[in-house]
């Protein structure tokens, strides 16, 4: 990527910071443009917010806790949805992305809508791939299973063991 991202800022963190601000405004669907200058946020061809990459570095200092991804309603929040989109786009090498997205509604918790097009116009990310990324994140951050409990003392006589 030939973007001017600060060294301490990832695409995931940048989009997560934008998403955290959008969560405050209760916007349900929008369009984002990512390019070398930063992120444009709009709707219906109208741009209502522009973020420069350097502006986002301080705001991106707060990462979402792992529990945010385990919440069944995770995809109803922009911070989670855009963070996952950023995570998925990070390894790609396009110079420009156009994102059309909508968070899931309370009636359909997994019904987010995502279509990301690269500078060539090809679709590089869909809602299905974002849901898969969410599942992978949940699996990676799951706590290890609790160890099996030791056998109860009352059952020891049944197996012919001596009680201590």
Outline:
The chain has helices at 11-25, 53-59, 67-70, 78-89, 127-140; strands spanning 29-35, 38-43, 46-52, 97-102, 113-117, 123-126. The protein is an alpha+beta fold and 164 residues long. Helix 1 (11-25) packs across helix 2 (53-59) and helix 1 (11-25) runs antiparallel to helix 4.
The span between the termini is: 67 Å
Mean pLDDT: 84
- Strand content is 15-25%
Number of β-strand runs: 6
* Uncertain parts: none
**Secondary-structure content class:** alpha+beta
Radius of gyration: 21 Å
Count of DSSP-assigned helices: 5
Strand order of the largest sheet: 3-2-1-4-5-6
Explain this structure:
By secondary structure, the protein is of the alpha+beta class. It has one domain. The chain contains 5 helices and 6 strands; from the N terminus they run H-E-E-E-H-H-H-E-E-E-H. Strands 3-2-1-4-5-6 form a 6-stranded antiparallel sheet. It is globular.
Write the layout of secondary structure elements.
Blueprint: H1 11-25, E1 29-35, E2 38-43, E3 46-52, H2 53-59, H3 67-70, H4 78-89, E4 97-102, E5 113-117, E6 123-126, H5 127-140
């Amino acid at each position: 990527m030939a973007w001017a991202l600060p060294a301490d800022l990832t695409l995931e963190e940048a989009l997560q910071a934008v998403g955290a601000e959008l969560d405050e405004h209760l916007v349900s669907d929008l369009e984002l443009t990512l390019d070398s200058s930063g992120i444009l946020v709009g709707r219906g061809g109208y741009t209502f917010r522009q973020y420069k990459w350097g502006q986002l570095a301080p705001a991106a200092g707060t990462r979402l806790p792992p529990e945010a991804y385990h919440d069944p309603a995770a995809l109803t929040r922009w911070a989670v949805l855009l963070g996952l989109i950023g995570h998925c786009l990070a390894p790609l090498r396009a110079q420009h992305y156009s994102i059309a997205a909508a968070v899931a509604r309370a009636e359909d918790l997994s019904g987010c809508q995502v279509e990301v097009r690269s500078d060539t116009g090809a679709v590089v990310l869909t809602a299905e791939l974002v849901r898969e990324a969410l599942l992978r994140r949940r699996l990676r951050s799951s706590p290890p299973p609790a160890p099996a409990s030791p056998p109860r003392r009352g059952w020891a006589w049944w197996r012919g063991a001596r009680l201590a």
